[in-house]
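Notebook entry, structure prediction.
Reason for the run: the old model in the group folder had no record of what sequence produced it. Starting over properly, with the input documented here first.
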Amino acid sequence: MLKSLYLQNFRNYQQLEFKPDNDFLILTGANGTGKSNLLESIFYLGTGYSFRQVKDDHLVRFGADYFLIRGVVNNNGIDYQIEFCYNQEQRKKITKINNKNALPGSCASYLPVVIFSPLDLMLVKGGPAERRRFLDLVVGQLRPQHIKDLHNYNNILIQRNKQLRFENISDDQLLPWDQQLVTVGSMIWKRRVVVLSQLLGRSAEVFKSLSEGRELAGKYKSQICDLKKDDDLEQCKLLFSEAIKKTRPHDRRVKATTVGPHRDDFALYINQREGRLYASQGEQRLISLALKIGQYHLLSQQDYLEPLLLLDDVFSELDAQHKLFVLKGMKQGSQVIATTTTPFKDGVVGKKSLTDDIIMVYRKIF
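New structure, fully documented this time:
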C-alpha cells in the first residue's frame, strides 16, 4: 500500500506532499486541476512509466528541467522508499529503492498497482506494444525476475541489431548473441504464456458476468510458433533457436531481429470473433474492464501482494449495474484512490483539501 508520496516538477505540480490516510479515498475537483496527474505519478511509482504512454520529457513541469517522484510503500509489513528522478537535459532516469540504484520496472512487486482508466480501451484496439507492456507488467508484479530478464533481453537485442548492420556478418559472429537471446527470451516467453492463461481464466469469468454470458478467450501470438503454456523451457529454446536460424537471411537484409518476444502479441476473442476487429466500442470497453479486474484478482490471490487500485474517472463511463459489479468484486480492505468531477453531498465521512482545487473525500461507498 502507498503510505506517502512527494512530487517535484511533475506535470502541473511544482511540489506536493500526499498522504492517503484512508483505505478508500476520492479526489474530486474540476477537469484540468491535476487529479489524473496525481494518479499518473502513483502509477509511475509502481511501474516506472506513465499509464498515458507518454515519454518522460512530457512529464516534466513546464519551465523545469527535471521531475522527482518519491514514495514510501508498505509491502508485507515492511516499508520501502521508491524514488524516480528524471533529468530532461541529460535524458537520464535514476531509480532507487531504499536509496540503492534499481531497474525502473523493479518497483512492480513492491507497489502492485492496477489502474482503471478510459485509456484502457487501447488494450483491445491499440497496437501490440500496448498489450505486451500490460502483460509484462502483470508478469513482473507476480515474478520480479521477469523485469531483470526483460532488461537483459533488450540489451542483447540492441547488440545483435548492431551486429546485423555490418556487411557480410557471418553466422559464427551472430551465434553468441543468438544463444543469449534464445536463453533469456525463452524464459520471458514461458512466463508470459503461463500468466496470460491465468489472467484470461479470471477475466473470462468476469466478462461472462459483465456481458450476459458471452465468452471471452485469448491466445498468445508469436511469429515463431503456437506457444502453449504446457511447453517446457527446453522446448521453447528449441523453437526459438530454429526460428532465429531460419530468419537470419531476412534479418541481415532488414538489419534488425525480426522474431522474438519483442515482436509478439496476444489476441482477444468474443464468442470466437477477434475483439479488436469485430467488437463494438462498448464491448471493447467491457473486455478491457474484465482484463483489469482479472489482473486485480490474480494479484489479490497472492499472499505476498496487496494491489493498490487507481480509478481514474472510469466509472463515469459505466452504468450503475456495471459500476456496482466492479465495486463488489474488490476485496474488502484494499487501498483505493479514485478521481471524479462529481461533487458529493451525501455519505461523506470526511473532507480535506489537497490543493486549492482538489478535495480529498472519504466515503464508505463510491
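Summary: Residues 319 and 325 are 10 Å apart (CA to CA).
The old model has been moved to the deprecated folder.
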